[in-house]
Design brief:
With 471 residues, the chain is an alpha/beta fold. It contains 18 helices and 16 strands. The chain folds into two domains: 197 residues, Alpha-Beta Complex (Aspartate Aminotransferase, domain 1); 250 residues, 3-Layer(aba) Sandwich (Aspartate Aminotransferase, domain 2). The structure holds ligand F0G.
C-alpha cells in the first residue's frame, strides 16, 4: 500500500480521527520569558503601542503570525544537511521542482525567498497603470504590490462573508455575480484574476471547489489568466474534504491537484503551508510569462535554481510541502485552531465563525462599540492582550486596511479584527487556553477600554511602523 492509498483510508474514516491528538512529539524546546506586568506596561509604551515594535524575546506567546514560525520536523532538520550550495543547478532545486510539480501540477517553477517577492515579480510582468485585479480578498502585501505596479486591487468577497457570526462552510468564496458583472464591462483592463486560499483577510475562511471552478470559467471566458494566492492551500483542501459534497473520500493531494487544475499559476508563500521558516514560489504554465518573470527573478532574487534562498532551504521546503499534505497533520492543525476558537468563544468574546484554518479572529467592533474605527478598536485589544498576558496578536482593521481621504479623514475598513494566528506545530492547547483566559479577563472590563490616536505611519503598509498615543 503506497502513501496515497494510506491517506485515502484515513480520509474515508468518519472525521479522519486516526490520531486522538498530535501525530508528533516534542524533541527540541525553546524556553520562553514572561516579563512582569510593570515591564510589559513600559515595553508596550516604548513600542508606541504597536506590537510590531516589540522585541520577540519580550513576548510570552507570539500569535502575531503563522508565517515562517512553524517548527521544523526532524526530517526537515536532516534535509538542512543535504544542502548542495551551488549558484547554478543545485540538486536541491531539482528535488524541489519535482515535488512542486507533483503537488501543484503547473509546468514551470521559480523559487523566491517569500510570497511578496513572488507577487512583485508576477505583477511587474503582468500589471500596468489602469489595470484592475479582482480577488475574493487581497492580503496587505498583495494589495501593496499591485498598487506599486499601478494596478487597482478589488475585493469581491461572497455575500456569506458579510455576517461574521453566521456559520457557512465556505465563507472565503468569491462573489461570482459581482465578478461576472465586473468582467463583462472591464475585461480589457483585467490582467489577472486572483483567489486567496484560504482567505486570510476574511478570517482564514476556505473557498469551495465549486467556487474555484466558477471563477476559472469566468476568467477563461474572457481569456484572463487566473492565479491562486496559494499560501494556505493545504488547509483549504482539508476544509473541502471535510465540508464539500463529493470530496470526503478524496485525499489532500488529489483535492489540491483538482484545485490547481483550474488555474494558470500561483504565487505561494511557503512560510505557511510549506512548513518552512523562509521560502516561496511562482508557478506558471505560460512560457512567455515565465521568460519575463525569470528575467526579473535574476534581477531581484537570484539565479532561477536558488531564487534568493540558500539551497539547503529549498530541500527543507521540498520536505515541508509533503508533510503539510499529511491527513493526520492537517487534522491536528485545523482542530487545534478550532479548539482555540471554542475556548475564546466560551469566554464570551465575539469571533468570526466558523473558525478558520490558521487563526482565531476576535470581532473588536462588536466587542468594543464605544471605540470608533478611527481610534482603532482592534489595536486597543492587541495592546491590552500584551499588557494582560504577554501575548501578541495583530490588528486587521482600520490601521492595516483603512486609508485616509484628501482632507485627512479616516476611511474605515469594514471590519475591526484582532487576529490570533496559530504557528504550526509550535504551541500546546494549554498555552492557547492561557490566551483565551486572558481575553476573558479583558472582556470583563471591556467597557473601561479607551481608543488610540495614530501619531505616526501612513500608506498601505502603515500598520507595520505606526505608533499611537492612548486617548
Ligand atoms: N498572501 C497571503 C494570503 C498572506 O497571508 C501573506 C503573508 C502573503 C501573501 C505574503 O507572503 O509573508 O511570504 O511575503 N501573510 C503573513 C501573515 C505575513 O501574517 O498573514 P510572505
Amino acid at each position: 500500500m503506497g502513501p496515497d492509498s494510506e491517506a485515502a483510508v484515513s480520509a474515508s474514516e468518519v472525521s479522519g480521527s486516526v490520531f486522538p491528538a498530535e501525530p508528533f512529539r516534542i524533541k527540541v524546546i525553546e524556553p520562553l520569558r514572561f516579563p512582569p506586568r510593570l515591564e510589559r506596561e513600559r515595553l508596550i509604551q516604548e513600542a508606541g503601542y504597536n506590537v510590531f515594535r516589540l522585541h520577540a524575546e519580550d513576548i510570552y506567546l507570539d500569535l502575531l503570525t503563522d508565517s515562517g514560525t512553524s517548527a521544523l520536523s526532524d526530517r526537515q532538520m536532516a534535509a538542512l544537511m543535504l544542502g548542495n550550495q551551488a549558484y547554478a543547478g543545485s540538486r536541491n532545486y531539482f528535488e524541489l521542482e519535482r515535488v512542486v510539480k507533483e503537488i501543484f501540477g503547473f509546468k514551470f517553477v521559480l523559487p523566491v525567498h517569500q510570497g511578496r517577492a513572488a507577487e512583485n515579480i508576477l505583477f511587474s510582468s503582468l500589471v500596468q497603470k489602469g489595470h484592475f485585479i479582482p480577488s475574493n480578498s487581497h492580503f496587505d502585501t498583495t494589495r501593496a504590490n499591485l498598487m506599486h505596479n499601478g494596478g487597482q486591487p478589488l475585493d469581491f468577497p461572497g455575500p456569506e462573508s458579510r455576517d461574521l457570526q453566521t456559520s457557512s462552510p465556505f465563507k472565503g468564496n468569491m462573489d461570482i455575480p459581482k465578478l461576472k458583472q465586473f468582467l463583462e464591462s472591464n475585461y480589457k483592463s483585467v490582467p489577472l484574476v486572483m483567489l486567496t486560499v484560504t482567505n486570510n483577510t476574511g478570517g482564514g475562511q476556505p473557498v469551495s471547489l465549486e467556487n474555484i471552478r466558477a471563477v476559472s470559467q469566468l476568467a477563461r471566458k474572457h481569456r484572463i489568466p487566473f492565479f491562486f494566492d496559494a499560501c494556505r492551500y493545504a488547509e483549504n483542501a482539508y476544509f473541502i474534504q471535510q465540508r464539500e459534497e463529493g470530496y470526503a473520500n478524496k485525499t489532500i493531494p488529489e483535492i489540491a491537484r483538482d484545485m490547481f487544475s483550474y488555474a494558470d499559476g500561483c504565487t505561494f508563500s511557503a512560510k505557511k503551508d510549506g512548513l518552512v521558516n523562509i521560502g516561496g514560489l511562482i508557478c506558471l504554465n505560460d512560457h512567455s510569462l515565465l521568460e519575463k518573470c525569470r528575467e526579473l527573478l535574476i534581477l531581484m532574487e537570484g539565479f532561477p535554481t536558488y531564487g534568493g534562498m540558500a539551497c539547503r532551504d529549498l530541500q527543507v521546503m521540498a520536505v515541508g510541502l509533503k508533510e503539510a499534505q499529511e491527513q493526520s497533520y492537517l487534522e491536528s492543525r485545523v482542530s487545534q485552531v478550532q479548539r482555540f476558537g471554542d475556548a475564546v468563544k466560551a469566554q464570551g468574546l465575539p469571533i468570526i465563525e466558523p473558525v478558520g484554518g490558521h487563526a482565531v479572529y476576535v470581532d473588536a467592533k462588536k466587542m468594543l462599540p464605544q471605540i470608533p474605527p478611527e481610534q482603532f478598536p482592534a489595536q486597543v485589544l492587541a495592546v491590552e492582550l500584551y499588557r494582560e498576558a504577554g501575548v501578541r496578536g495583530v490588528e486587521l482593521g482600520t490601521c492595516a486596511f483603512g486609508s485616509v481621504d484628501k482632507n485627512g479623514n479616516t476611511i474605515p475598513h469594514s471590519y475591526e479584527l484582532l487576529r490570533l494566528a496559530v504557528p504550526r506545530r509550535v504551541y500546546t492547547d494549554r498555552q492557547l487556553q492561557v490566551v483565551a483566559d486572558a481575553l476573558g479577563r479583558i472582556n470583563e472590563r471591556k467597557d473601561s477600554l479607551k481608543g488610540l490616536k495614530l501619531i505616526e505611519g501612513e500608506g498601505p503598509l502603515r500598520h507595520f511602523v505606526a505608533s499611537f498615543h492612548p486617548l
